[in-house]
Amino acid sequence: EDQVTQSPEALRLQEGESSSLNCSYTVSGLRGLFWYRQDPGKGPEFLFTLYSAGEEKEKERLKATLTKKESFLHITAPKPEDSATYLCAVQAGTGNQFYFGTGTSLTVIP
Amino acid sequence: NAGVTQTPKFQVLKTGQSMTLQCAQDMNHEYMSWYRQDPGMGLRLIHYSVGAGITDQGEVPNGYNVSRSTTEDFPLRLLSAAPSQTSVYFCASRIAGVSGELFFGEGSRLTVL
Q1: A-contacting residues of B 28-47, CB under 8 Å?
Q2: What is the mean pLDDT of the segment spanning B74-90?
Q3: pLDDT digits over A47-97, tens only?
Q4: CB atoms closer than 10 angstroms to residue A53
Q5: In whole angstroms, how far apart are CA A1 and each of A4, A29, A43?
Protein backbone atom coordinates (compact mmCIF):
# COMPACT_ATOMS: atom_id res chain seq x y z
CA GLU A 1 0.00 0.00 0.00
CA ASP A 2 1.29 3.43 -0.94
CA GLN A 3 2.06 5.45 2.18
CA VAL A 4 3.59 8.76 3.20
CA THR A 5 4.63 9.51 6.80
CA GLN A 6 5.87 12.86 8.06
CA SER A 7 7.70 13.60 11.28
CA PRO A 8 7.63 15.32 13.64
CA GLU A 9 3.94 16.30 13.79
CA ALA A 10 4.88 19.64 15.31
CA LEU A 11 8.13 21.54 15.72
CA ARG A 12 8.89 24.71 17.65
CA LEU A 13 12.13 26.52 16.86
CA GLN A 14 13.75 29.68 18.05
CA GLU A 15 14.47 32.18 15.29
CA GLY A 16 17.80 31.20 13.74
CA GLU A 17 17.68 27.60 15.04
CA SER A 18 18.12 25.28 12.05
CA SER A 19 16.35 21.91 11.83
CA SER A 20 14.98 19.28 9.43
CA LEU A 21 11.58 17.82 8.64
CA ASN A 22 11.28 14.21 7.50
CA CYS A 23 9.03 12.55 4.92
CA SER A 24 9.30 8.79 4.49
CA TYR A 25 7.42 7.00 1.75
CA THR A 26 6.60 3.58 0.38
CA VAL A 27 5.15 3.73 -3.13
CA SER A 28 5.29 1.72 -6.32
CA GLY A 29 6.74 3.61 -9.23
CA LEU A 30 7.61 7.02 -7.82
CA ARG A 31 6.95 9.77 -10.35
CA GLY A 32 7.88 12.65 -8.08
CA LEU A 33 8.03 13.86 -4.48
CA PHE A 34 6.59 17.29 -3.69
CA TRP A 35 6.86 19.70 -0.78
CA TYR A 36 4.12 22.22 -0.07
CA ARG A 37 3.65 24.98 2.48
CA GLN A 38 0.18 25.57 3.91
CA ASP A 39 -0.78 28.64 5.92
CA PRO A 40 -3.92 28.57 8.13
CA GLY A 41 -7.10 28.91 6.09
CA LYS A 42 -5.23 28.71 2.78
CA GLY A 43 -4.56 26.13 0.12
CA PRO A 44 -1.19 24.36 -0.12
CA GLU A 45 1.48 26.36 -1.94
CA PHE A 46 4.02 24.48 -4.04
CA LEU A 47 7.67 24.61 -2.91
CA PHE A 48 9.73 21.85 -4.57
CA THR A 49 9.62 18.78 -6.79
CA LEU A 50 12.23 16.02 -6.52
CA TYR A 51 12.35 13.19 -9.03
CA SER A 52 15.30 10.95 -8.22
CA ALA A 53 17.47 9.89 -5.30
CA GLY A 54 20.33 12.28 -4.71
CA GLU A 55 18.48 15.28 -6.08
CA GLU A 56 18.47 18.52 -4.08
CA LYS A 57 16.52 21.78 -4.49
CA GLU A 58 16.95 25.09 -2.63
CA LYS A 59 14.83 28.18 -2.14
CA GLU A 60 15.87 30.90 0.30
CA ARG A 61 16.17 29.21 3.74
CA LEU A 62 14.72 25.88 2.55
CA LYS A 63 16.53 22.93 1.05
CA ALA A 64 14.88 19.65 0.03
CA THR A 65 16.72 16.38 -0.46
CA LEU A 66 15.62 12.93 -1.62
CA THR A 67 16.78 9.36 -1.03
CA LYS A 68 15.14 6.12 -2.16
CA LYS A 69 12.99 5.95 0.99
CA GLU A 70 12.70 9.47 2.39
CA SER A 71 13.00 13.17 1.83
CA PHE A 72 14.18 15.92 4.15
CA LEU A 73 13.23 19.57 4.22
CA HIS A 74 16.08 21.44 5.85
CA ILE A 75 15.33 24.88 7.29
CA THR A 76 18.38 27.05 7.86
CA ALA A 77 18.19 30.03 10.25
CA PRO A 78 14.38 30.16 10.17
CA LYS A 79 12.38 33.34 10.64
CA PRO A 80 8.89 33.75 12.17
CA GLU A 81 7.43 34.08 8.68
CA ASP A 82 8.49 30.48 8.00
CA SER A 83 5.84 29.34 10.48
CA ALA A 84 3.36 27.14 8.58
CA THR A 85 2.42 23.52 8.02
CA TYR A 86 4.71 21.75 5.57
CA LEU A 87 3.18 18.94 3.53
CA CYS A 88 4.93 16.17 1.65
CA ALA A 89 3.27 14.33 -1.25
CA VAL A 90 4.29 11.58 -3.65
CA GLN A 91 3.03 10.99 -7.15
CA ALA A 92 3.12 7.36 -8.18
CA GLY A 93 1.98 4.84 -10.75
CA THR A 94 0.12 6.44 -13.67
CA GLY A 95 0.73 9.86 -12.14
CA ASN A 96 -2.96 10.53 -11.61
CA GLN A 97 -2.92 10.02 -7.84
CA PHE A 98 -1.00 11.96 -5.22
CA TYR A 99 -0.55 10.67 -1.67
CA PHE A 100 -0.10 13.25 1.05
CA GLY A 101 1.41 13.04 4.50
CA THR A 102 -0.34 14.62 7.47
CA GLY A 103 2.16 17.46 7.63
CA THR A 104 4.57 19.05 10.09
CA SER A 105 3.35 22.18 11.87
CA LEU A 106 6.33 24.51 12.25
CA THR A 107 6.34 27.43 14.67
CA VAL A 108 9.31 29.81 14.70
CA ILE A 109 9.50 31.95 17.83
CA PRO A 110 11.09 35.41 17.61
CA ASN B 1 -3.82 35.35 -13.47
CA ALA B 2 -6.42 33.92 -11.04
CA GLY B 3 -5.13 30.29 -10.97
CA VAL B 4 -7.61 27.93 -9.28
CA THR B 5 -10.81 29.55 -7.97
CA GLN B 6 -13.20 27.81 -5.59
CA THR B 7 -16.66 28.89 -4.48
CA PRO B 8 -18.15 29.12 -1.94
CA LYS B 9 -15.49 29.60 0.75
CA PHE B 10 -17.88 28.61 3.53
CA GLN B 11 -21.12 26.62 3.52
CA VAL B 12 -23.38 25.14 6.19
CA LEU B 13 -25.80 22.38 5.19
CA LYS B 14 -28.34 20.26 6.95
CA THR B 15 -28.16 16.47 6.67
CA GLY B 16 -29.76 15.33 3.43
CA GLN B 17 -29.37 18.62 1.56
CA SER B 18 -27.54 18.76 -1.72
CA MET B 19 -25.03 21.28 -2.99
CA THR B 20 -22.27 21.85 -5.54
CA LEU B 21 -18.78 23.12 -4.87
CA GLN B 22 -17.47 25.03 -7.84
CA CYS B 23 -13.91 24.95 -9.16
CA ALA B 24 -12.50 26.86 -12.13
CA GLN B 25 -8.94 27.22 -13.42
CA ASP B 26 -7.54 29.55 -16.05
CA MET B 27 -4.20 27.80 -16.65
CA ASN B 28 -5.47 25.45 -19.39
CA HIS B 29 -4.66 22.45 -17.20
CA GLU B 30 -5.97 19.10 -18.42
CA TYR B 31 -5.84 17.47 -15.00
CA MET B 32 -8.18 18.59 -12.21
CA SER B 33 -8.95 16.99 -8.87
CA TRP B 34 -10.81 17.32 -5.60
CA TYR B 35 -9.35 16.60 -2.15
CA ARG B 36 -10.75 16.73 1.33
CA GLN B 37 -8.61 17.67 4.32
CA ASP B 38 -9.50 16.43 7.78
CA PRO B 39 -7.51 16.80 11.02
CA GLY B 40 -4.96 14.02 11.39
CA MET B 41 -5.85 12.50 8.00
CA GLY B 42 -4.00 14.65 5.50
CA LEU B 43 -5.32 15.44 2.06
CA ARG B 44 -7.30 12.59 0.48
CA LEU B 45 -8.25 12.37 -3.19
CA ILE B 46 -11.99 12.23 -3.92
CA HIS B 47 -12.24 12.36 -7.73
CA TYR B 48 -10.05 13.47 -10.57
CA SER B 49 -10.30 14.22 -14.27
CA VAL B 50 -7.64 14.04 -17.00
CA GLY B 51 -9.69 16.03 -19.51
CA ALA B 52 -13.16 17.09 -20.58
CA GLY B 53 -15.55 14.15 -20.43
CA ILE B 54 -13.13 11.93 -18.46
CA THR B 55 -13.41 11.40 -14.70
CA ASP B 56 -12.27 8.74 -12.26
CA GLN B 57 -12.50 7.89 -8.57
CA GLY B 58 -9.84 8.56 -6.00
CA GLU B 59 -9.39 7.22 -2.50
CA VAL B 60 -12.68 8.46 -0.94
CA PRO B 61 -15.31 8.87 -3.70
CA ASN B 62 -18.47 7.71 -1.89
CA GLY B 63 -21.14 10.39 -1.52
CA TYR B 64 -19.65 12.65 -4.20
CA ASN B 65 -20.27 13.09 -7.92
CA VAL B 66 -18.25 14.96 -10.52
CA SER B 67 -18.46 15.82 -14.20
CA ARG B 68 -16.14 17.66 -16.57
CA SER B 69 -17.83 19.34 -19.49
CA THR B 70 -15.12 21.96 -20.11
CA THR B 71 -11.36 22.18 -19.53
CA GLU B 72 -11.85 25.08 -17.11
CA ASP B 73 -14.51 23.75 -14.72
CA PHE B 74 -14.72 20.75 -12.41
CA PRO B 75 -17.68 20.91 -9.98
CA LEU B 76 -18.08 18.57 -7.02
CA ARG B 77 -21.63 17.55 -6.10
CA LEU B 78 -22.91 16.28 -2.79
CA LEU B 79 -26.29 14.69 -3.49
CA SER B 80 -27.35 14.02 0.12
CA ALA B 81 -24.98 15.59 2.63
CA ALA B 82 -23.96 13.68 5.76
CA PRO B 83 -22.15 14.93 8.90
CA SER B 84 -19.16 12.75 7.87
CA GLN B 85 -18.72 15.09 4.88
CA THR B 86 -17.90 18.01 7.16
CA SER B 87 -14.43 18.95 5.95
CA VAL B 88 -12.32 21.43 4.04
CA TYR B 89 -12.38 20.74 0.32
CA PHE B 90 -9.60 21.70 -2.08
CA CYS B 91 -9.61 21.73 -5.84
CA ALA B 92 -6.25 21.27 -7.55
CA SER B 93 -5.05 21.21 -11.15
CA ARG B 94 -1.87 20.47 -13.06
CA ILE B 95 -0.58 20.15 -16.59
CA ALA B 96 -1.14 16.93 -18.53
CA GLY B 97 1.52 14.23 -18.41
CA VAL B 98 2.86 11.69 -15.99
CA SER B 99 4.41 14.16 -13.53
CA GLY B 100 3.96 17.72 -12.37
CA GLU B 101 3.02 19.70 -9.31
CA LEU B 102 -0.54 20.43 -8.26
CA PHE B 103 -1.85 23.99 -8.00
CA PHE B 104 -4.45 24.39 -5.29
CA GLY B 105 -7.41 26.66 -4.72
CA GLU B 106 -8.01 28.44 -1.42
CA GLY B 107 -10.43 25.80 -0.15
CA SER B 108 -14.13 25.50 0.71
CA ARG B 109 -15.07 24.83 4.34
CA LEU B 110 -18.23 22.72 4.55
CA THR B 111 -20.17 21.99 7.74
CA VAL B 112 -23.01 19.46 7.69
CA LEU B 113 -25.33 19.60 10.70
Answers
A1: 31, 33, 35, 40-45
A2: 97
A3: 999 999 999 999 999 999 999 899 999 999 999 999 999 999 999 877 788
A4: 13
A5: 10, 12, 27
Q: Residue B57 pLDDT > 70, yes or no?
A: yes
From A2, which residue of chain B is nearest by alpha-carbon distance?
B59
Contact call for A43 and B104, based on CB within 8 A: yes
Contact criterion met (CB < 8 Å) for B50 and A96? yes
Nearest to B74 by CA among B104, B40, B109, B42: B104
Q: Which of A41, A46, A102 sits opposite B101 (nearest CB)?
A: A46
Beta strand B19-25 with B76-78 is antiparallel
Report helix, strand or coil for B25.
Answer: strand
